[in-house]
Amino acid sequence: MHYNLALIGFGNVARSLARLLLRKQDLLKTQYDVTFSFTGISTGRHGCAVNPDGLDIEQALGLVESGKSLSPLSTFHIDDSPSVIKHSSAHVMFENSPVNTQTGQPALDHIRTALELGMHAITANKGPVVHGYRELTALAKTKEKTFGFESTVLGGSPVFSVFRETFPLAELSSFKGILNATTNIILSRMENGESYENAVKYCQSVGVAETDPTNDVDGWDAAIKVAALITVLMDTPFTPQQVNPIGIRGITRDMIEKASAEGKRYKLVCSVEKTGEAIHARVAPELVDSSSPLYGMMNSSTGISFRTDVLPDYSITVSEREGMAGGPVETAYGLFADFVNVARSEIMST
Amino acid sequence: MHYNLALIGFGNVARSLARLLLRKQDLLKTQYDVTFSFTGISTGRHGCAVNPDGLDIEQALGLVESGKSLSPLSTFHIDDSPSVIKHSSAHVMFENSPVNTQTGQPALDHIRTALELGMHAITANKGPVVHGYRELTALAKTKEKTFGFESTVLGGSPVFSVFRETFPLAELSSFKGILNATTNIILSRMENGESYENAVKYCQSVGVAETDPTNDVDGWDAAIKVAALITVLMDTPFTPQQVNPIGIRGITRDMIEKASAEGKRYKLVCSVEKTGEAIHARVAPELVDSSSPLYGMMNSSTGISFRTDVLPDYSITVSEREGMAGGPVETAYGLFADFVNVARSEIMST
Q1: The total number of structural domains that make up chain B
Q2: Which domain holds residue A256?
Q3: Looking at CB atoms within 10 Å, which of A294, B97, B181, B255 has the fewest?
Q4: Is residue A326 pLDDT above 70, yes or no?
Q5: Co-location of B267 and B181 in the same domain
Q6: What is the distance, to the nearest Å, from the Cα of residue A167 to the centroid of all Cα atoms in its chain?
Q7: Partner B contacted by A313 (CB < 8 A)
Q8: Which chain A residue is nearest to residue B289, measuring alpha carbons?
Q9: Residue A344 near chain B (CB below 8 Å)
């Protein structure tokens, strides 16, 4: 089985995905007899390239990382993402354009186009999940293709697939977690005596916070993840606006010191409860004590606890570890896992 | 799709499974168009019953729970498990006979028989996983059937399926966890001032420890779970004897008090590391501090952390919660999940 792959968006995550695919290509071949080539790449600032016979990915990585344009690699002139998708002859389109929390665009259109052309569509972008889950899932089903989005929450670690594959017919009544690493790092550093401003600067310096940290510190990143989880796991469309998050700007060093003296910590807690058909979602700073599974999640560690009708509370924690902090390399694994699962299920059905 | 089910072993877990199937039968029908009937039941002390047209399961539950024999329900005389399997016309055989850590028998033979007859075989019994994983998996593959054992570790909560379904092509290098609830309850109660003897008695009174608590307190239950995890997840046959566990009998109240004063706790820690082809496994009491994800696992809470080449450390924690303590009802969900996954994949492939 050979797969042509199109990469729409070629930032850190997509480039990490390309490298992960190269690193695992022998395993893919020996375990599933799967091979692949890259037939289309679209970037924000370095042009586009299409070659249905396969692009030289090492060369593409080199060009973009040295600030050059991809266009010399292209077999014909092309300069927008929809055209790359259409002319790539891809079997799988990876969508990693910038997140747009308000509309999900242009990712939504890219995924729609790819699915309509009979491609699988896999994304690390939360926008299309929140703004198009039902439509895109229905379209994928009609086309017998997959709309995959494992890497949108918990930075590449399995969460949607855990629920889909390993909890059959369980009813999810509530969940609770820490879903934004940046704010968790800021609160952890403030607990160690750093000011809010310096903690934000630290996050910016290591690349986990953007120049404008609003999206993280005001709770919008957490809120869109909560909306995505509700939309998918509770099969109920939900927006970040409905979550209406409260961020961490109101938390002072004094408050943290006082909490610490009482053996407590502030965490930006995401919590969702379903009562009948009503869903109550909340993202806000909360005091947690050592009896909470959230208490031990420090720095970039994140996690989520699920309550169902069939099992004790089931928690997934993704813990910081040296050299792996939930960055683009790990997000790329979520995209890779979606791809391997697509290939596995196609192999099984042939 | 209609499934005939045989229950080999009809203790707490199997009876909970029967009740769970009844509770979820409408969902099974509406979501997957799956129906089922019970066509064979074999018990340790209440006889056996077979009826290929379907037994009255409510009646069977009533008979056994009031100490009566099942034989009046049987369409013909039958009095051993292999015969029940052979004459049940079952599509799925659930094996829940008592665990035999030394040989895996008779569960191993029951599963072999069922698979050879073209049935799916699903078990909560660790014995056949440790003593027959490769053989039974190969046999199941030949027959295009499933050998399912999700409920053998973490008491029914997903762990094997998480790895199988959601971590494709990840390399597992180590794992660490608390896998035995009984010893964790004992250590938690000792930390609250109870004596070892009284803590054991408490566990016996609520049914989590047997009259002879050796299997739990000397680490053998944890060791067989470790062996099962290594055997399956690292695809390397491993026995509890190779784990050679150290139990908790040597831990005194004095030691626990001293640890507590230093902010530490004793836990019966299971840890496994793979270096090249060598696997080093250990089950022993260890001191953990509050930076460890194991520190917060109290009473019947259990859990496991996985280290792979692709993600930060990924931990699953199953936390005690009122009314759900990882007993037979929850173990039954693991059996149920294996069954639903069998049915789902058969539906998908038709």
Answers
A1: 2
A2: 161-322
A3: B255
A4: no
A5: yes
A6: 21
A7: yes
A8: A296
A9: yes
